[in-house]
Amino acid sequence: MTIQAELIENAAGRRVPAVVNGSETVPYQGVGKHQPQGRKSGPPIRISSDYPANGDKRLPDLETALRACGLADGMTISSHHHLRNGDKVALQALEAASQLGVKNLRWFPSASFPCHAPVVDLMEAGVVHHIEGSMNGPLGAYCSEGKMRGLGVLRSHGGRWQAISDGEVHIDVAVIAAPIADAFGNCNGAHGPSACGSLGFALADSIHADRVIVVTDNLVPFPCIPWQIQGNNVDFVVEVESIGDPSKIVSGTTQITRSPDRLKIAEYVACFLRDAGIMRDGFSFQAGAGGIALAFAAFLREMMREAGIKARFIRGGSTQVLVDMLNEGLTDYILDGQTFDLAGVESIGSDARHVPTSPFTSYNFNGKGNFATMVDAVVLGATEVDVGFNANVVTHSDGRLLHGIGGWQNCLFAGCTILAVPAMRDRLPVIVEEVTTLTGPGELIDVIATERGIAINPRRTDLIDATRDSDLPIRPIEELQAEIESICGGKPQRPKLTREPVAAIKWVDGTVIDTAWRVAG
Amino acid sequence: MTIQAELIENAAGRRVPAVVNGSETVPYQGVGKHQPQGRKSGPPIRISSDYPANGDKRLPDLETALRACGLADGMTISSHHHLRNGDKVALQALEAASQLGVKNLRWFPSASFPCHAPVVDLMEAGVVHHIEGSMNGPLGAYCSEGKMRGLGVLRSHGGRWQAISDGEVHIDVAVIAAPIADAFGNCNGAHGPSACGSLGFALADSIHADRVIVVTDNLVPFPCIPWQIQGNNVDFVVEVESIGDPSKIVSGTTQITRSPDRLKIAEYVACFLRDAGIMRDGFSFQAGAGGIALAFAAFLREMMREAGIKARFIRGGSTQVLVDMLNEGLTDYILDGQTFDLAGVESIGSDARHVPTSPFTSYNFNGKGNFATMVDAVVLGATEVDVGFNANVVTHSDGRLLHGIGGWQNCLFAGCTILAVPAMRDRLPVIVEEVTTLTGPGELIDVIATERGIAINPRRTDLIDATRDSDLPIRPIEELQAEIESICGGKPQRPKLTREPVAAIKWVDGTVIDTAWRVAG
After folding, report:
1. A186-207 confidence digits (pLDDT tens)
2. Contact A262/A295 with Cβ under 8 angstroms?
3. From the CA of B428, how many Å to the nearest CA of chain A?
4. Interchain proximity A165–B42, CB inside 8 Å
5. Homologous superfamily in CATH for domain B260-496
6. Cβ B368–A45 below 8 Å, yes or no?
7. Hey, are the CB atoms on B36 and A42 less than 8 Å from each other?
8. Less crowded by CB within 10 Å, the N or C end of chain B?
9. What is the ipTM of this complex?
C-alpha cells in the first residue's frame, strides 16, 4: 500500500513527512535546537476504593484483563522487549485483542523481534493497524515493503520515554511481562524462571498509560521486592504458564569476537581510550554486547588492571566481562539498562552495586539532564558512516529497515563517542559518501575506528591533540575511505529507493531526523 | 486577623469553609464517595541541553539557587520533615527568600516542627503568607490564634501526595534536604552525618514541582546510590555546612513507656491481635514510635516468638524493636516510611529487606490501591475519640491546633484499626461525646483500647465474634465512657471556639472533613 505524504526538508537536509499517522511532525532542527513547550502528561486520576482492598488485582486471563481495561478499536497497546526474542507476552496480548474482535490497534512495543513475526498476520487481519517501535527482522522487512497501513515510527529508548512522558504518544493499555510479581502488581525482572534483569523499558508505560496489566509466570506473596514497577501504577495482574523462552531471553554466554579484524578494532578502541587520557581513575564508559564491544571491554579491563585504574561506573548492557570487573573492584558500580547474559542477571539480582536504570535516568533528552552526557566514552556500532561522521543504524545499504535505534542515539551525547565498525561488510565499504538513513548527526560522533585505522572528527581538536604521540593508526577519514574503496573496487552503489515513506526516524527530542523509504520491489 | 468565609455543612455534619485561600473546596462526602475527574498533573517539559553536560548542577548558595528558580512573590515553596526537629534547611530557604525580597510565599512543608518557630517572624514580615502543612507546636498555636493571613490546610501524608499529584497544589520550588547527594541531584537519606533514613516525603515534590533544589552537607561523586530522589528531576544542588542537628533528627533510642497504665494498654492490644486471630503466619502490622506503640511491638514480638509466628511485613516508622524482629526472622520485610531511631537508619541503609516506601506506595488514596489497605492491623493514637468511634488527632480538647495528621488518616484503611489511648489525660476523659475536630470517621475505626477496657466498633461483628472467648476486658464504649467520667467527675467541658476558621482539615481524598476554629483569646 502506498502512503502519500507531504515531505518537508529538515535542518539536516533530509526530506521527512509533514504528517505521521495523522499527527503533524516537527522536523529535526539541529542538536539541542528544538524548544518544547507545555507540561508533561499525567495519567487519569484513579481512586483506591475502586481497587481490591486486599491488593489482589488478579484476573484469570489476558482477554478478561483487556476487556476490563476497555480496550477498543483504534487504541494504543504497548509492550516491551526485555524478554527479547524469547518474549511470549506481546503476541499473547495482541492475540487476546484479536479474540475480543478489536481492530486497528496501534502496537507500541519498545522493540519487536523475530519472535513477533506473527504480528504480520494480525496486521493483515486488521487487528493491528501499524507498529510504532523498533522493528527487527521480518516486521522491519514488512514495513520496508510498504505493506503496513500506517507509518512506522522509530524512536531511541530515550525518545520513547520522551514521547510518552511529553504526551506525544498516549498509551491506552500497557502490557508488562514480569519475571516476578505480586498480586498487587509490584514487579521486577531479576528473579524467576524467565528472569531478564531489568524492567526499565516498561517504566514509562507503567507511569503514564491509562491502564496497566502485569503478566507473570512467577507470582509471589506481597510485597515483591524490589518493586521496579510499582503496583500502585498497575490495574490488573494476570498469571500465565510462561512469559518467555528462557533460552532466548538471555544467552548463557555472549561470545567475544574471534575475527582477527574485529579483535584489532576492539584493541584499537581500548588503546585509544588509554592514549587519549580518557582511561583514568574515576572515569566511566559504556559498551554494548556485540562481539567487538565485548572484546573491547576485555582489552580495556586488562589495561586498567595493568595501570591500576578504577572506573567510577560502567554503563551496561551488562555481560560477564562487566560483572567480573565489578567483582574485581575495577569499577564502583554498573548502571545497567539491560542485562545481556546470565552473569548480568545474577549480578543485578544480588549485588546492590549493580543498579538497574531506566530510559528516564539514562537517556531521556527532555529531562533535567540524563546519565548519557556524563559517560566519558561510549563504544557503538553502525551499519554505515559517512565522511561527515554521520551514521546510520536502522537501515542496510539497500535501504531496508532492519534494526531499531535502541539507546544508540542517546549514547551519542557521551564525552567521547566511538563507532567501532569493520571497514567493509560483504565487500561493501562501511564508510560512504552520505548515509542512507541519517540516525546520528556527525557533530556528536567523535571517532570512527576500523581495522584499517582510526578517524577523529576534526571538530574534536582536543582528542586530536591528546593522541598526537599515540602509535595508533590515526588518519583522516577521507584517506580511510579511499583505501577501503580501492580494496572494494570503488564506491558502493546507492540503494534504489522510492519516494514513498514507510517510517519516520525520530531524533532524541521527538523531531523527525530522517525517513525510511519503501524499497523498490 | 479574622478570616471571613462562607461555611457549608459536609456529609459528617461538620461546617467547613467553602473557599480556602482563594480555591473552592469540595466538602467531605463520606468514605470513598468523592469521584475525582481529570488527569494527574505534570511538571513543565525541560530539555537536558539546558543542564550541564557533566552533570554538575551545583550553585554556591540557596539564595543563588532560589533566584535561578525564578522565585517570586506569591509562589509556593515546599520542604520536608524527614530531619524532624533537627531540620535546618527549611528555615535557611525561607530566610534566603527573605534576602531576595520575595513576599507572600505559601510555605508547603510536609510538616513543621518547633525548630521552625522563627517562621512566625517571616509571617509577621510578610515573607510567608501562610503555611499549608502540619504545624506542630508554636506554629500551630500561631495559627490557632488566628494570626496567619491565610488558612492553614492540614493533610495526611497520603493526602499531601494526592494534592500534589492531582494538581490541587502547584509547587513552584521544592527544597529537599539530603543527607547524601551527588552533584547531579541523586540523593537518599540513609547515609552521612545527618542521616535520617528515607526521603519519601519529598518524592512527590521532586516529581511534580516546577523547580527542585537539593541541599546537602554530604556530597559524593556521581552516582549517589541508591537514588531515592532522582537527579533527573533536580534543577540545582547546593552544598551547606550542615542540613540538620543529628541529635534532633533521630533519637539514639526511643523509649518504651514505663507507665503501668500505658504498658497495660500495649499488652491489651497485643493480646487482642492474638485473640482475634490477626496474629497468624504471613500477617502484617503497623505501629508508630510512641511509648505505647513501642511497648505493643515488644509484647507482640514475645507472643510471636512463643507461637512460632512470622509476619510477611511490618510497616515502619521503624525502631530498634522492629529491626530486631527483622534480624531475628520474625518478619520477611520492613516497609518503612520513616525511621525513628538510629537502629532504623542503620538498618534501612544496609539491609535490602528494610525497604523505604513513599506516601505514593503507602498511602495515596487517589491511586490504583495503596499498601495501607493491605496491612492487617494498625495501632494508632488520638487526642480524643467519641462514642461513634470518630477520632481527633489534630487539636487538643481546648481546640488548639497542635499536631499534624501524619499518616494517621491513611492508616485507618487497615484490616483492623486500633486506637490505643489512655482513658484520661490530665484528668480529662479521652472518650468524649463528640470529638472537637473530626479527623477520622468512626466507620474506619474498629477498636479503642484503654487501660480500663477495650471497645469494639459494633460494625465489626467479625471482630466481636472472634474475641468472644477472649479474657480481655472487652466492653461497650458507652460503658467505658461512663466509668471514665465517673472517675473524672463528669463529662469534659466543650472548648470555647469562635466561628472563625483558621485551618481546613482535609480527608485523604482532598475533600474537607472539618475545620479548626480560632480559639477564644
Report:
1. 999 999 999 999 999 999 999 9
2. yes
3. 37
4. yes
5. Glutaconate Coenzyme A-transferase (3.40.1080.10)
6. no
7. no
8. C
9. 0.96
